[in-house]
């Protein structure tokens, strides 16, 4: 027996009920339990089947999926409500600024838009077969407008997120400084003394290759020493003139240095300072290192050492070249930076002091960079020719300044 042809229709009472429910939801925007993204399903091939008569073509019989508009409209408004709530949560994640919550809210917005797109495709597939095409078209227009509005909002939110990414690094630096300030008691005088000795040694280590390169490129070292320390300095040995170069480096490295607490734990744990500079190219230490390199190494020196100014060019672009020479410099900059951070992180902030050339030697505030005990025994006949490391005063404690001494009868 042939199957009877059944025309699929929607009773007028059901249609009125759907329109009424649609208007109420639009007016009051009531929010219920939000369905999960996975609850919005596209009916598969296994859905119940019936037969309808296509009114747009010649009568023919074809199988279509059974479709209930009231269920899909209910799902639609739940999704729209969830989308609006997700957008509100996205805005709230900016005050206070929380990148993790922003990403989470963004994912929810995207998932709800995907659900809307599924309903949109489902609507297009079945709308042509509905007898009330005008009502369906009106509903489709509303859905399309809603989707367009939310897509524009999503693009706007993505642009805001991208713009705020540049602020993350500066906020992180401020947070690191606050964390370091809260951990002041962790920094002891003994750890400060350790950083002081490490900084002094790193300056000495950088002076060695600097002098070697100057010799190799036929620089007049005697004139350079006289220009740094003056021509009246009496050196116990000719090799002591290397301390004049250390004095030059110290003056450049500590000039206009700002003593402020910062979190240097990652920097201290890094064996190669270039790794830290690469990992945090926008950090305060990175800017300090580049600025001091330009101050210590004159362009004429770099050009004579290497035949070009490639390293200087990279530093001017806020980059850090991976060369042996720059690595030694970066290690020195690392310990000077750590020393300045430690000085500001003590319970009693350290105060830096310098010794001017010609000052009478004082065993309380100075020590000889040569480490000659016999020389210091006759301190009444000694004066500081120049300083190779500044000193620090921490309350009643003193970290002595390192100076080069010579015997003289004239004092300041």
Distance between termini? 125 Å
Widest beta sheet: strand line-up: 4-6-9-5
Number of domains: 2
From N to C, what is the helix and strand string?
HEEHHHHHHHHHHHHEEEHEEEE
**DSSP helical segment count:** 14
Please state the oligomeric state of the protein chains shown: single chain
What's the total count of β strands?
Answer: 9
Q: Tell me, what's the shape?
A: elongated
Secondary-structure-based class equals alpha+beta
Share of residues in strands: 5-15%
Radius of gyration: 38 Å
- In round numbers, the mean pLDDT is 79
Give helix % range.
55-70%
Pfam families: DUF641 (PF04859), GIL1_IRKI_C (PF24994)
Keywords: Coiled coil
InterPro entries: DUF641_pln (IPR006943), GIL1-like (IPR040225), GIL1_IRKI_C (IPR056813)
């Amino acid at each position: 027996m042939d199957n009877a042809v059944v025309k699929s229709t929607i009773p007028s009472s059901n249609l009125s009920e759907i329109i009424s429910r649609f208007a109420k939801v639009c007016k009051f925007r009531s929010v219920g339990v939000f369905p999960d993204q996975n609850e919005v399903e596209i009916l598969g091939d296994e859905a119940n089947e019936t037969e309808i008569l296509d009114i747009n073509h010649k009568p023919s019989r074809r199988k279509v999926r059974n479709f209930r508009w009231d269920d899909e409209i209910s799902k639609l408004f739940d999704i729209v409500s969830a989308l609006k709530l997700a957008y509100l949560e996205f805005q709230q994640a900016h005050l206070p600024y929380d990148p993790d919550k922003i990403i989470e809210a963004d994912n929810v917005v995207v998932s709800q838009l995907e659900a809307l797109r599924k309903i949109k495709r489902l609507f297009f597939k079945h709308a042509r077969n509905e007898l009330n095409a005008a009502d369906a078209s009106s509903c489709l227009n509303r859905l399309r407008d809603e989707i367009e509005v939310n897509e524009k909002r999503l693009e706007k939110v993505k642009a805001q997120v991208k713009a705020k990414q540049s602020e993350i690094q500066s906020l992180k630096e401020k947070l690191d400084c606050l964390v370091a300030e809260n951990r002041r008691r962790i920094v002891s005088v003994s750890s400060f003394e350790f950083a002081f000795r490490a900084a002094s040694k790193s300056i000495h280590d950088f002076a060695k290759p600097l002098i070697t390169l100057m010799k190799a490129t036929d620089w007049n070292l005697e004139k350079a020493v006289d220009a740094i320390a003056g021509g009246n300095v009496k050196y116990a040995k000719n090799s002591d003139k290397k301390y004049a170069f250390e004095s030059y480096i110290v003056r450049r490295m500590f000039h206009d240095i700002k003593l402020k607490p910062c979190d240097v734990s990652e920097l201290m744990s890094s064996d190669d300072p270039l790794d830290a500079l690469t990992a945090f190219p926008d950090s305060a230490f990175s800017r300090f290192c580049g600025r001091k390199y330009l101050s210590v190494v004159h362009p004429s020196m770099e050009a004579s050492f290497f035949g070009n100014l490639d390293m200087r060019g990279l530093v001017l672009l806020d980059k850090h070249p991976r060369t042996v020479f720059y690595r030694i410099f970066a290690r020195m900059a690392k310990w000077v930076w750590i020393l300045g951070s430690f000085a500001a992180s003590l319970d009693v902030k350290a105060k830096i002091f310098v010794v001017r050339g010609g000052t009478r030697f004082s065993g309380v505030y100075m020590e000889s960079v040569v480490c000659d005990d016999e020389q210091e025994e006759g301190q009444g006949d000694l004066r500081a020719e120049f300083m190779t490391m500044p000193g620090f005063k921490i309350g009643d404690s003193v970290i002595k300044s390192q100076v080069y001494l010579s015997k003289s009868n004239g004092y300041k």
